[in-house]
Design goal:
Helix content is about 0%, strand content about 55%. It has about 375 residues and is an all-beta fold. The chain has one domain: Neuraminidase (6 Propeller).
């Protein structure tokens, strides 16, 4: 039996140095450069990165990451909050020696922090919840799988975590581990899929995507998905496509998948009634998470935007010498985005610094 780790984007970042009848196809379209640009709004002088960001409103956003002393990790929760006026560092009581691995929220009164205790041995999960007034440490089961991008919080008493995948060889038959917090207890589920992504818009609409039928554990397979309807997991109907495990994001009734098959990157878009395949131009820089734009389009990383009609590319921020982009998020009700990163603006600077950027007007 082969055991693989789950999709743990542990320190995910985009690095730029030196600056079938269900399916309708849309070929890659020529892209135009956007006039807007990412701009730095906060930078700490330590060595580190903000690698995950959530935005609940114009006056509430959170950014988490890690910092280092030289090359040694500093075991503290590196967490900042946007109040509508400024970004300020936040202290989490009881989180000594905890490093944040994930951050998710359904509102300003339901923010979840997923971390690991740096005990030098087992690195057990530590989970905290912000209720709008104070932090609460949550009771978690042993070996709770956590990682940047693995957790979704659809509601007040509703948390899902996509964990590891277990495969039986010859050819591999794989299952993925899921954990669900229902407000009173954690429950475990197993799906017959090599899970690669999880997304949710409500407690009755949660998706897990991945592949099945691959000939090797890490190889491509048939894209597959399961949907939680509030009672049970049911298979979702997808086009018959062989590709690598996709990433996923949801917005209302829309579902977006990003994957690569046959050496070509493409999107699959469910608009509520049918799937559409959208080609991604090879000239675009598309590293990073999927983020819906709230207007029928989607970002594929922070520098490539599908507007629903055509592709737009976004330039690297001016004056930045080295840049590593982490996660980013749209501010609800606006066309602005917050992003986490690590960056510096001088060739003489030996390290890159935790950096927060904004795209569009400051909310």
């Amino acid at each position: 039996m082969t055991v693989m780790s789950g999709r743990r984007w542990t320190r995910m970042m985009v690095v730029i140095l030196g600056c079938a009848g269900l399916l309708a196809a849309v070929p890659p379209r020529a892209q135009a450069s956007s006039a807007a640009q990412w701009r730095i709004v906060y930078q700490n002088r330590q060595n580190g990165i903000f690698d995950t960001v959530v935005a609940n409103s114009r006056a509430d956003a959170w950014a988490a990451g890690v910092v280092y002393h030289g090359e040694t990790l500093i075991p503290v929760p590196y967490l900042f909050r946007w109040s509508g006026r400024a970004w300020r560092q936040v202290t989490v009581p009881g989180a000594k020696n905890v490093v944040i691995e994930g951050l998710a929220a359904s509102s300003a009164r339901n923010v979840w922090l997923f971390g690991q205790l740096q005990d030098g041995a087992l690195f057990p999960a530590k989970v905290f919840r912000w209720d709008g007034a104070r932090w609460h440490e949550m009771v978690v089961p042993p070996n709770l799988p956590i990682g940047v991008g693995n957790e979704v919080v659809p509601g007040l008493a509703d948390v899902w975590i996509l964990g590891g995948t277990t495969c039986i060889p010859g050819p591999p038959r794989c299952t993925s581990d899921l954990r669900h917090w229902n407000g009173t207890a954690w429950k475990r589920y197993t799906l017959p899929i090599t899970g690669s992504g999880i997304a949710a818009v409500s407690r009755t609409d949660v998706w897990v995507v991945g592949v099945t039928g691959q000939s090797t554990v890490d190889g491509p397979g048939r894209i597959a998905a399961f949907r939680w309807n509030g009672i049970r997991w049911v298979p979702a109907k997808l086009p018959r496509i062989t590709a690598h495990g996709p990433s996923i994001v949801m917005s209302g009734s829309q579902v977006w998948l990003d994957t690569t098959g046959g050496g070509t990157q493409f999107l699959l878009h469910w608009n509520g009634s049918r799937w559409q395949r959208i080609g991604v131009p090879a000239s675009l820089f598309t590293g990073g998470p999927l983020v819906p734009d709230g207007r029928g389009g989607v970002w594929v990383g922070p520098f490539a935007h599908w507007t629903g009609r055509a592709w737009q590319s976004v330039d690297i921020p001016a004056k930045i010498v080295n840049l590593g982009m982490g996660g980013f998020a749209r501010v609800p009700g606006t066309s602005s985005y917050w992003a986490g990163a690590t960056a510096n603006e001088s060739v003489n600077d030996p390290v890159t610094h935790p950096t927060l950027l904004v795209y569009g007007p400051v909310p």
